[in-house]
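Troubleshooting entry. The earlier prediction with nicotinamide-adenine-dinucleotide gave an output that would not parse, so I re-checked the input for stray whitespace and re-submitted. Clean input:
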Amino acid sequence: MSAPSPALPPVRTAVIGLGWAARSIWLPRLLRSPAFTVTAAVDPDERGRAAVAGPQGADATGLSVLAAVADLDPAEVDLAVVAVPNHLHCAVACELLTKGIPVFLEKPVCLTSEEAERLAAAERAGGAVLLAGSAARYRADVRGLYRVAERLGEVRHVELAWVRARGVPDRGGWFTQRSLAGGGALVDLGWHLLDIAVPLLGTAAFRHAIGTVSADFITQASSRAAWRDDDNDAEGDDNDAGSGGDAAGGGGTDVEDTARGFLVTDDGRSVVLHAGWASHEAVDTTRVTVDGSAGSATLRCTFGFSPNRLGRSALTRTADGTTRELAVPTERVGAEYDRQLALLPDLLHDPAARGRAIDEARRTIGAIERVYTSARTVQEVRESAPV
Ligand SMILES: NC(=O)c1ccc[n+]([C@@H]2O[C@H](COP(=O)([O-])OP(=O)(O)OC[C@H]3O[C@@H](n4cnc5c(N)ncnc54)[C@H](O)[C@@H]3O)[C@@H](O)[C@H]2O)c1
């Protein structure tokens, strides 16, 4: 991890939400990095606080462990890293931004276009920058794909797929309830996929967005994300027959495990999107193909932390009937999070960073909303059809 720019003192950082993402991704990296000093940790749930607190609510380094964002002193915080359940992203980030505290907000940044506007207003009102947490762009193999894509001529089409063999997060908890998560695999994995597409496609608006969702795997106990220590799984029995295609099926779960979308940008490029928390596959696989006027390129790898992953990333370029494999640097699982974190201190001081996260989030959530609307319209037609 890189050291802070010489002129910058360590960023005094508060971590908000002390669940899996904070404890597995952010806190260990923040505590290791000389560019940050973790000064506070906030969680209303005693279990979250207990996981990071020492005696008297403070650990050996003097970290304040608090129950509410309202207890933070804005004068003592340079950055809040927010990793709360999705439905609280907007409210918690708005509260912090309005107080003038810069926010690094986990994906999905927002769950509706209306939330995107509230975040934009809070960023303006507080004069503090909103930064967005979706790290896959910082993977070495994705960067390799970006470099190859520069030599493919005009990008015409991008296929984005992240399909896990098994990997439903926190089944029965907030991740699988629409009112708390905003959706299933689309808003969770699809957010990352749309994020990595920005450098490939540019920022033209999506003119069309349609899609389908299904939930054939979500109630199967074997579909859960084994790398998480979630304890909400009691309600779902293994269901070898599957739950049918109705996302409203299993008790406590009403989101999709699989989403497929087709998007077209205003400048005439198309995107196929496939996000799956579980599938018929054996290995969790991410596959990105870029079709250009002068050739195509495909990256096969595994995003995220699943141990059920491809042995290595493979990047190929195809032109004139020949497919060549290109070298991809190997790196530790999670290296992209180190790289993203290392950029934050400078971004806090970069006036050009203001408004950028929300511009991208507006476009991403707009596409996601429209894919969901399209999928629900078809479900409603199916349900109202005479039997
Ligand atoms: N970037 C990634 O790769 C990645 C990976 C996993 C999760 N995430 C994201 O991180 C976020 C958290 O996910 P998770 O898996 O850690 O969930 P989690 O349920 O394990 O943890 C969420 C924590 O937030 C706490 N919380 C609830 N309300 C709060 C509030 N008002 N203030 C402070 N804390 C509050 C909860 O008590 C809990 O401890 C989600 O948005 C998720 O999408 C991102």
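This one parsed fine. Residues 11-135 form a domain with the Rossmann fold fold (CATH 3.40.50.720).
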